[in-house]
Structures are given as C-alpha cells and as structure tokens.
Design goal:
globular
C-alpha cells in the first residue's frame, strides 16, 4: 500500500470513551483525570498528561509494589488526552467490574485500571512457601474498567479446577487457591515445573483465567 493508505488504515480510532482497543495488543485510554497503568507500558500519548511512578502506599488510591518482583510497579497518569499502553505484545483484555465486584490478577498481568477501582496487593497465604508463582496478586474491586494482558487467547475455566501457576492469569474473588503437589510428575520431568505444583481451586461457583503460555516472574 502507499504511504497515505498506510497512515489512514493505522490511524487511531475516532471517538470512544474510557478504555478501548486500537488493536488486540494496544489499549487506548481516553483520559480526563487519573488512571493507573503498568510502569513502562506507555507507548504514546496526546494532550497534556503527566506521569508519576511510585512504589509504596496504601490500598486506596496510592501505588504499591510487590516485594517479590511480580511486576506490580504501577504509574499514575494524570491529565487530559489519549494514553496508549501495551505490554510486550501481549493481548489486551478489557473487563468491566460492577460496584463491589472483585477479581484477583497476577501482578505481571495488570495493564491498567480506572481511578475508581480500589486495589490492593495481597499474599496468597494458602500457597506461601510453595515453589509456585503468583504468591502476590493484585485484588481489584469495582466499579470501573480494568485491562489485563494474556499471551494468546485466554481460557476461562469454571471451578473446581487445578492450574499451572505460571499459566494462571486471574480468578474470581469467591475462590482461593491451595496447592496440589504431584511428585510423580516431578520425577518424570526430572525438574521442578508448573506441572509439579498446581494451584488447586477446590470451591465451586467461581472461575479461573488461564493462558496458553507459562510466564515466569522476574525472580523465578
């Protein structure tokens, strides 16, 4: 195609409010105020937007960092314009949380969320001490839009289910994982892996989001 066609075909979408996808891997935030986004995820912006990166604070409006390096360092973007964010070519999934609705997301998979969303980083006590990922998760409570990222198209599995911790992206707030250890698989593979330690979601009535990829946290 010629240059004009290329420019026109790949130009930003007109209109839109809040969170919208420019393509499957790029989120456009129509910003009027404040939004939280993963540090380092900004690829472009228009208008007047300022950024502040923080790594400590409370659970309601301040920014926090998981001491485990789970990728939960966030930045606050404030101003007016369009903010374009992405994360290593991963697919972006936009979720709308109702008031009081909560989801738990692996810290490395949180891309952005509206300022109206309450959030906190919590230790998953039931699996502390196990050789499994996701010991620290970001708990997000609506109302508001949340953008998470996945390697490929996600699968939402109803509980009860057991999952590879390195492939587990998020789960509903009405379930909490324990750990299932399969020593036979460890012996078969000859090394520790996600198949050796599984997250065990035993409760019924919830869901778990998994991706077709085993994602290793920075300290693993």
């Amino acid at each position: 195609m010629d240059l004009d066609e290329f420019v026109n075909e790949n130009a930003p979408k007109e209109g839109g409010e809040g969170f919208q996808l420019e393509n499957s891997k790029l989120l456009d935030v129509a910003l009027e105020g404040t939004v939280m986004a993963k540090a380092g995820s900004m690829v472009a912006y228009t208008g007047e937007i300022s950024f502040e990166r923080k790594s400590a604070g409370g659970a309601t409006g301040f920014l926090k960092k998981a001491v485990t390096g789970e990728g939960s360092v966030m930045m606050q973007a404030q101003g007016s314009g369009h903010l374009y964010v992405a994360d290593q070519g991963k697919k972006v999934q936009i979720l709308e949380l109702d008031a009081g609705e909560e989801i738990s997301v692996n810290g490395n998979d949180v891309l952005a969320f509206e300022d109206s969303v309450d959030w906190d980083i919590r230790t998953i006590d039931s699996i502390a001490g196990a050789s499994a990922g996701g010991l620290f998760n970001v708990f997000l409570e609506g109302p508001g839009y949340v953008a998470i990222t996945t390697h490929g198209r996600p699968l939402v599995v109803p509980t009860p289910v057991r999952t590879d911790p390195q492939a587990t992206v998020a789960w509903s707030s009405n379930v909490s994982p324990g750990v299932n250890t399969d020593r036979n698989i460890k012996g078969f593979l000859g090394r520790s892996s996600g198949e050796t330690y599984q997250l065990d979601f035993a409760q019924e009535g919830g869901f778990v989001i998994v991706q077709p990829f085993e994602e290793t946290s920075p300290q693993q």
